Amino acid sequence: MDVYDYNHICNHSDDGGRYSFKMQPTMIIFAVRALLNALSPLIGAEASLGHAVGPDWAKDASEKQIEEWSTKGEEIRDEVDALIKSTFEKKYWELVRQRLGLKKQDSEDVQNVIQPLLDLMQAHGLDFHGTFRALCAFRPEHLDEDGEGDSKGKGEAYSSVLKDVDSLDQGTGMTCPMPSGDALAGAPNQISPVQESTLAVPARNITYPTPLVALLARLTPPDLVNPPSRERACRDILAWLEKYAVRIAEDQETAGWSLDEREESMKNVNPRFVLRQWVLEEVIATVDKDNIAGRAALMKTLEMATNPFKPWGAEGDTRPEEELTEEEREERRFCGVGTKNFLGFQCSCSS
């Protein structure tokens, strides 16, 4: 999934949304119910007999007896449904806490931090994996770098932050042309003069005034968030970051977790590289064009896909773009969201 959308369907043949992202828990229950239906005679027989059955356990049973066993076995359906629901929710929220770098188990995390973030991503079309990866570097003190700490100071500081973010969009600020992909294979970039596709990644040599401005710019690139909606998105993100910062501080105090440990832990569960559709299309085109260059590009992509958490593209490196190697620049590009026409389009499960 690229931009977060709980209605996203990854199976092209599922025109009814049966296997959409939000329906995954329901489909787990559906699958287990089907399994229970198949095993209900066996479960019912063991429940009635009080012991495990052996080979040929139903060989001499009448149809009526098997039907009675089936009915008996299906009596546990509600219990199984409840167990699946509780197990899924517990594990799901546990994994999301890991992605957010929250160590302490807090019963209010879902209501105060996790669900509001998912709602935020849904409302503003933020990139799913990119959002979590960007939050790895966030620290509570980033919110105080421009303000005095009181509500008035915060408001004025955030207005300044929003102006800084908006100024980055002027001209060609946040987009760059998409090369052919040969650079990953060791060949020079070939940029077609008629190619208009752009990548939702920062352009070269942008200097961000503060880490907070850098974070907002990374979360809301204009290729994903329309400029008229960007201020609203940034304000909503800032409001959420206030709550997130409090929760991070609690972990520091109660769990004894340093900010460096939190960042490292988050980077180990939030991928830097995601095998997006535009990457697949570009690699396929490179292979079709030149087998030798294509093989190298394919191997590089495979390496990145099998090691998605590594800091590809000199992540976090503040050197000017021209000081990076060509391979590092291409790695960084491959970690971008890609062109809009491929967003939300992935190979289906049968591809």
UniProtKB/TrEMBL annotation:
Keywords: ATP-binding, Magnesium, Metal-binding, Nucleotide-binding, Nucleotidyltransferase, Transferase. Residues 309-330 are annotated as: Disordered. Its cofactor is Mg(2+). GO terms for molecular function: AMPylase activity; ATP binding; metal ion binding. One of its GO terms (cellular component) is mitochondrion. Signal peptide: none annotated. Belongs to the SELO family. PANTHER family: PROTEIN ADENYLYLTRANSFERASE SELO, MITOCHONDRIAL (PTHR32057). This is Selenoprotein O.
